[in-house]
Design a protein that fits this description.
Helices cover 51% and strands 0% of the residues. The longest helix has 23 residues.
Length: 61
């Protein structure tokens, strides 16, 4: 077994892994998870309560 055989085995293993991830990602069960993740940047952040706000220099004590 020389280096070219090892390279071929690594190439085949990488390709099989890529196809496995591709099939996992495109399953119908994953669609709702990916849709929710895609909408995360569009959601508004929750505003902290006043007690958790830090005192800034422009506010009067």
């Amino acid at each position: 077994m020389d280096i070219n055989d090892v390279r071929s085995l690594v190439l085949v293993a990488t390709f099989v892994g890529f196809i496995g991830v591709w099939i996992w990602a495109w399953r119908k069960e994953r669609k709702t998870d990916f849709d929710e993740s895609a909408n995360l940047p569009l959601e508004e952040d929750a505003r902290p309560d006043d007690e958790y706000r830090t005192n800034t220099s422009w506010e009067k004590p």
